[in-house]
Design goal:
Layout (H helix, E strand, L loop, with lengths): L1 H18 L2 H13 L1 H4 L9 H16 L9 H18 L4 H24 L3 H29 L19 H21 L7 H21 L2 H17 L3 H15 L5 H7 L9 H19 L13 E12 L2 E12 L6 H35 L10 H18 L9 H26 L15
Main location: membrane
Subcellular location: Membrane
Protein name: Wzy family polymerase exosortase system type 1protein
Length: 454
């Protein structure tokens, strides 16, 4: 029954896409974020729905979309260079079979990120993509938020609709993504036109934001707690009432502690000392190994090259027995540990050049979005009042994701490439609008009865 529902839902979406071609782009975004094939028992697993959606979306754009003034931005060129470099490192990878498996989905995410901005030609399309990203992710977030509220969740315990612990269904990743979406959710609740702002829209938005905040609690992901702190700091910095909202945030955080599960507070306490937690200690060791590896292999080792790492680290922990409690030091040897950081993931797999291109894409995007925010601030009451708040929301979400990716290997996740494409699309849309405005002829001066201009 579930397979038939998903098949019918996607089939209907595809049919609507033939009438409104941009919906085919939205369908691909839905497939990338929700991965309905993972929720299916058989039917969708046997159909290449992702490839079908992408071919239909690009075909509809080529046949029906207006391609006037359609140009690649500098960031799309950088994404194309990154795609080519990843292809090269895959061909020369230390682990060819494992690298080919990861490449099979990374190239699709990069291609879609390069293609997506050229389709975002109107404000409605930009808003529609932001809305789809929020609603698709909310299918996972609401499920996780309700289970957390009812059962409390747990590290590696909270089931997010599937048992496959990868993509957005992994605890740390969905926690990071959920918090990064909060600014976009709030923007849609205030400036959205697909669902105009009223008490119902705002009520749903605030409830969804609360579910986003519950994700780090339910998954017990320390990354999520760091993301919450980062977002709270950025929002407080932009607030006009810092001395009112700051203490209120602190009181709310302290008041929530008694309601949190004991396992959550105990796990969060390990942030203070990485040596007391094996997971954190191995991350530090892997990062040191990566730096040493790239010194010898400046071009990187290709996807999944962490499989060859081997290191020894010191772990300290409190041991309690009949003789009392004491701190015990252990020397631990480990192998094949994942990077657990997007930055070291890029550095180890793509080397110095790949890391530079990837970092440049994010830096340029941040700077350009900040320029948009500053250029369009103070436009309240005009038709451009939505621009600066959207730029700020995307910027805050981007920064939260990048802070969270310090501790999670999510450098190639399709979600962040969609967020980058959304910021590129906003930039190119505004550039096109300014160019069109500059091309308009000056208003003709009134002509007097004698035939001479006044």
């Amino acid at each position: 029954m579930r397979d038939l529902f998903f098949l019918g839902f996607l089939g209907l979406f595809f049919l609507l896409g033939f009438r409104r071609p941009f919906l085919l782009v939205a369908v691909y975004a839905y497939i990338d974020i929700v991965s309905p094939q993972r929720l299916s028992y058989f039917l969708l697993n046997s159909i290449p729905i992702s490839a079908i959606a992408f071919l239909l979306a690009t075909g509809a754009w080529l046949l029906t979309d207006d391609k006037k003034d359609c140009r690649f931005s500098f960031r799309q060129v950088l994404l194309l260079i990154l795609l080519g470099w990843c292809a090269y490192t895959t061909a020369t990878a230390d682990f060819p079979i494992e690298a080919a498996h990861k490449w099979s989905w990374v190239w699709k995410a990069l291609i879609f990120a390069i293609f997506l901005p050229v389709t975002l030609r109107t404000k409605l399309r930009i808003e529609a993509l932001a809305l789809f990203m929020v609603l698709c992710a909310s299918a996972i977030i609401i499920n996780g938020g309700m289970k957390t509220a009812l059962s409390g969740g747990g590290y590696g315990v909270l089931n997010l609709m599937v048992d496959n612990n990868s993509g957005l269904y992994e605890g740390s990743i969905i926690s990071c993504v959920a918090i990064s979406l909060i600014p976009v959710i709030l923007w849609l609740s205030r400036h959205g036109t697909v669902f105009p702002s009223d008490w119902r829209v705002k009520g749903f938005a605030y409830a969804l934001c609360f579910a986003c905040l519950l994700m780090p609690v339910g998954t017990e992901a320390r990354t999520g707690l760091i993301c919450i702190a980062a977002l709270a700091g950025m929002m407080l910095m932009r607030s006009k009432r810092k001395f009112i909202y700051g203490p209120l945030m602190l009181v709310a955080a302290l008041a929530s502690i008694p309601f949190l599960p004991d396992s959550f507070t105990q796990r969060m306490s390990t942030i203070e000392n990485h040596q007391s937690d094996e997971s954190a200690a191995t991350r530090i060791a892997v990062w040191k190994w990566t730096i040493d590896y790239v010194k010898e292999h400046p071009g990187g080792g290709g996807f999944e090259n962490y499989l060859q790492n081997s290191f020894t680290y010191v772990s300290r922990g409190i041991v309690s027995d009949s003789g009392g409690s004491r701190v015990e030091t252990r020397i631990v040897t480990d192998r094949g540990r994942a990077y657990h950081s997007a930055y070291f993931e890029l550095l180890g797999e793509q080397g110095y050049f790949g890391f530079f291109i990837w970092a440049l894409i994010h830096i340029v995007t941040f700077v350009r979005t900040e320029m948009i925010r500053r250029a369009f601030r103070g436009r309240e009451g005009t038709g451009e009042a939505w621009i600066a708040p959207l730029a700020l929301a995307l910027q805050q979400g981007h920064v939260v994701y990048m802070i969270g990716s310090l501790f999670v290997g999510i450098a190639y996740q399709p979600f962040i490439f969609m967020m980058l494409a959304l910021q590129i699309g906003l930039d190119t849309y505004l550039t096109r609008k300014r160019r069109d405005a500059a091309r308009r002829p000056m208003i003709a001066r009134p002509v007097l009865a004698t035939g001479h201009a006044a």
